[in-house]
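Work Package 3 committed the consortium to producing structural models of liganded targets before the mid-term review. Because experimental data for this complex are still outstanding, the team generated a predictive model from sequence and the ligand definition alone, so that downstream docking and mutagenesis planning could proceed in parallel. The input record is reproduced below exactly as it was submitted to the modelling pipeline, together with the SMILES string for magnesium ion.
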Amino acid sequence: MESESLKIFLCHASEDKPEVRKLYLRLKEAGFEPWLDAMNLLGGEEWRLAIPKAVREAGIVLVCMSQRSTTKEGYLQKEIKFALDVADEKPEGRTFIIPVRLTRCDIPERLRTWQCVDLFEEDGYERLLLALVSSSVGSSLVAPPTPQLIQKKICMLGSFGVGKTTLVGRFVQGIFLAKYLTTVGVKIDKKQIKIHDQDVLLMLWDLAGEDSHSQVQLSYLRGASGYLLVCDGTWSESLATARSIQQRVVGSVGEVPFVLVVNKSDLMDNWEINAAELEKLQAEGWKVKMTSAKTGEGVEDVFQMLTEEIVRPPSHR
Ligand SMILES: Nc1nc2c(ncn2[C@@H]2O[C@H](COP(=O)(O)OP(=O)(O)OP(=O)(O)O)[C@@H](O)[C@H]2O)c(=O)[nH]1
Ligand SMILES: [Mg+2]
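The resulting structure, written out as tokens with the ligand in place, is given here.
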């Protein structure tokens, strides 16, 4: 996450530890700062003191439960009570607790006022990420939220290795990530921009790229206002993959604004994608833009272009 990550306290019973540990690792990958006693407690630190401190410092508490744990009396119950007390001190309307069901089970009475997420459902994890991202607005913003601020979710889609993560790194942090570290699952970042005097907070969902073994997980597109379809100018096959992804997006979520990003424009000597091919796509109505995450060429423009497309009323597109 940009600037400061959202701190997430994972409240759970020992029976659910293996499941919760998996959730902890996924949330860490996604750019959050989860807190799980087994992972975060330093040896010798007094856990009875450390836990209330961690709950108080958390931006959000996930109360993880299952059939196994909801019937059990014990520390989980104490943690829930403590989290509820802290929640009482939070400003009205602020999401502080999200009950998370790991398996189908009854939700304890006192947690029923909070919107629950079912992790066992097929798109449970994506729903949880959405809830976390919307609740983190205000906790780690570039500027304090204003009533004029609108929030838009944008996904980065394309083949593996085309530069999705590097483009986000250039745009958000202004740096070039030379080392290739493939993205696992999803990584979320934020950046606030201005479009015609309108402040827009972009939630950037950088997804794992597509390869011969795995397709882009389109369930992550839920709630997205638009996407950057990235290909690598030095690799013509990545354009074919981009076209195939775009068709699948239309088939699964319908027409969503997008811009085709032809990245690595600094490597013109090894260029494979020809201009005629791109002109053909433009003639079909595609928005196409060349970028280099290395030099920064076109990077700001492409995010700006997509956001303009998103905030413009559909009749003006
Ligand atoms: N020369 C050059 N290299 C780039 C550019 N953009 C990305 N790269 C390099 O390409 C490699 C892959 O970049 P990533 O951003 O990790 O690619 P990705 O699309 O996120 O890949 P996956 O996460 O595996 O889907 C890295 O070594 C980057 O440094 C660019 O514009 N120019
Ligand atoms: Mg990546």
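Reviewers should note the following from the model. Residues 279 and 288 are 9 Å apart (CA to CA). These observations will guide the Year 2 experiments.
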